Each structure stands twice: as C-alpha cells, then as structure tokens.
C-alpha cells in the first residue's frame, strides 16, 4: 500500500459461492496458489499481486476506526486480446452462460 498505510498488510477474504467462486479461485491463483485442494493454501501464503484497496468504516455506530480493506485482487488493466485469445474467451463465456454460470473445467474464465 501507498501513502499513510505504506508497508502495512491488508487481509483479503474470498468466498466460494455460485456467484463468486471463479473470481475467488482466480484471486488465489494470482497470489501463487497451485493445485485444486483449497484445504491447503500454503502455496498462496506471502503471495503478492496488485489489489484495489478501499477504506472500510465498519458498521455504523461500531466505534471502529476506518481501515484499509482489499476490495479486488488482481490487476484492473484492460488488455487487448489477440485473435486466438478473443476466440478462446468467447468460447469460455459461451460455456459459462450455457452451464448456468460455472467456469469450464481445467481453466479460468478470464
């Protein structure tokens, strides 16, 4: 982090719901996680990547001071895809929609 919080660490909490599972798994991969057994996340411990940080004021009336919170794990850059990448992404999105929102086996959606 930069500024007032430079050098501090911020916790990230991922969730494996139907809506967030593929993004959570992608975030773990960006942090260095390998494999598919999420009961052992040691490969992601200490991993570093670009994150979007926001200030979390906590629940109103809680008396807690605002603290930095990880909002999004990974770069938020837009990359122009080459023709093969665009075709692969289009195929993956079609599969994702056809399967009711589940990523294709063996790879991430994005």
Question: What do you see in this structure?
Answer:
This protein is of the alpha+beta class. The protein has two domains: about 5-75, no CATH class; about 80-110. It contains two helices and two strands, in the order αββα. The chain has a two-stranded antiparallel ribbon with strand order 1-2.
Would you count the extended β strands for me? Answer: 2
Number of domains: 2
Mean pLDDT: 78
With strands numbered from the N-terminus, the spatial order across the biggest sheet is 1-2
Shape: globular
Radius of gyration: 17 Å
H and E string: HEEH
Uncertain regions: pLDDT < 50 for 5+ in a row? none
Strand content: 5-15%
Main sheet record: 2 strands, antiparallel
| Secondary structure tally, helices | 2
How far is the N terminus from the C terminus? 26 Å
Helix-and-strand structural type = alpha+beta
Q: Helical percent range?
A: 10-25%
Describe the protein's topology.
Elements: H1 21-30, E1 51-56, E2 67-73, H2 83-98
Antiparallel strand pairs: 1-2
Q: What attributes does this structure have?
A:
110 residues, alpha+beta, 2 domains, two-stranded antiparallel sheet, 2 helices, 2 strands
Structure summary:
It contains two helices and two strands, in the order αββα.
């Amino acid at each position: 982090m930069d500024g007032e919080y430079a050098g501090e660490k911020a916790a990230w909490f991922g969730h494996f719901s139907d809506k967030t599972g593929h993004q959570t798994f992608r975030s773990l991969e960006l942090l260095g996680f390998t494999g598919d057994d999420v009961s052992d996340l040691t490969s992601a411990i200490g991993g570093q990547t670009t994150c979007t940080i926001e200030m979390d004021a906590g629940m109103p009336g809680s008396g807690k001071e605002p603290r930095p919170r990880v909002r999004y794990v990974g770069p938020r850059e837009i990359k122009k895809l080459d023709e093969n990448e665009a075709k692969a992404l289009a195929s993956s999105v079609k599969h994702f929609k056809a399967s009711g929102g589940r990523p294709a086996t063996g790879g991430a959606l994005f």
